[in-house]
Amino acid sequence: MEEQGRPSASEERLRNLLVRGLGGDAPAYHAFLQELSAYLRAFLRRRLVRLPDEVEDLLQESMLAVHNQRHTYDTNQPLTAWVHAIAKYKLVDLLRRRASRDLLTDPLDNTLDVLAASDTEAADARRDVRKLLEQLPDRQRLPIVHMKLEGLSVAEAARVTGMSESAVKVGVHRGLKALASIIRGDT
Amino acid sequence: MRTDDLVTMLATGAGAVEPNQAARRYATATGFGVLGGAMLMVSLLGVRADIAAAALQPMFWVKLAFVASLAAASLLAAARLSRPGRRLAWATGALAAPVIAIWLLSAVALLQADPAQREALFYGETSDSCPLLIALLAAPAFVAVMWAMRGLAPTRLRLAGAGAGLLAGTVGALVYSLHCPESGAPFIGFWYPLGMLIPTAFGAVLGPSLLRW
């Protein structure tokens, strides 16, 4: 698509990591997400020059989307196009939401504030995931806490919570989706 | 929350992902759609009484081939629209080809017909009900295909909704063709696509709200 200048070596490398991750290779999947987040941060920062505070939140939301939708990646497809479409979807979504909100509150901002601040470090997102997790019902929160934060396996998490294995899996999946929608602010 | 922590959280215990989920969702959805549409058709309309005789007529098969090839093309289109970063590409051509073919056939049929017969060829006997019945029989498929697409990740929601609606419409038409007594190419080339466009329009209208993720 419109994405250019990204060396095809990194496309190849990331694609490889993702394909291995989809096959169940956890370290490869972790490496994929980590590298991808750096690329996506740069991508979003270039497009959100006027909204620097939104970059990290949108990045996290895009990463959640990549994770939740990883089953829609077709391994014959260029990874760049897939990731770009997801990030663009989330970006457009954010801008549309802001546009409808800004029209109600403040006038369109046209000052040249591009150079008002520079940041090379990732600002921490304003929302704390642990606080967000507290908003989820137990059947979603506990599987996420045990599996995603404490690193238990499905079977272990099922034993600790007294839930069935499939309930744990469903809880993680639905919980992550719910987190995404809380981050997006539509509750 | 740092993004690195989020990444770690997402990666922990992520496990393997079942391959071909899109194909399986669409197989399930079209299966349900055909089944639901067929049950509606049999209970409300009934299979045409002369189906055994009709099956000997080439136009019966032309009609079926027209609808089936449109259904296959819209299935491909819907599947492509369900994946981020996939373009319609040749699916557009695959959708246009059967329509162009039936229109060419219609032109030939109309030109060869006696001018007094042309109106009858176009309107047939059931043009009043045909598009609406196709839309009605498409309803189960519409629900099923929207379900399938909601579990995937369409990014152009209006277009994706239209694609899902078109797939439902072709499924409805496929079922309807077993009831429909018409055999004129001009009839099939106009009223059938019109019926398919009803769920397509519904899909385009509902897509942005139904398919959001």
Written description of the protein model:
The complex is a heterodimer of chains A (187) and B (213). Chain A has 187 residues and is mostly helical. Chain A has two domains: 7-110, RNA polymerase sigma factor, region 2, helix turn helix motif (Rna Polymerase Sigma Factor, Chain: A), CATH 1.10.1740; 127-187, Winged helix-like DNA-binding domain superfamily/Winged helix DNA-binding domain (Arc Repressor Mutant, subunit A, Orthogonal Bundle), CATH 1.10.10.10. Chain A has helices at 8-22, 26-47, 52-68, 79-104, 129-134, 138-149, 154-161, 165-184. Chain B has one domain. Chain B contains ten helices and no strands. Chain B has helices at 3-11, 21-45, 51-54, 58-81, 90-112, 118-123, 130-137, 139-150, 157-176, 185-210. Chain B starts with a helix and ends with a helix. The chains are: A mainly alpha (187), B mainly alpha (213). The interface between A and B is large, with 54 and 30 residues.
Number of strands of chain A: 0
How many domain regions of chain B?
A: 1
Decide which structural class fits the backbone of chain B. mainly alpha
Name the CATH homologous superfamily of the largest domain in chain A.
RNA polymerase sigma factor, region 2, helix turn helix motif
For the biggest sheet of chain B, the summary is:
none
Uncertain runs of chain A with pLDDT below 50, 5 residues or more?
1-6
Helix content of chain A: 55-70%
| Proportion of helical residues of chain B | over 70%
Structural class of chain A: mainly alpha
Tell me the fraction of residues in β-strands of chain B, as a range: under 5%
In angstroms, what is the radius of gyration of chain A?
18 Å
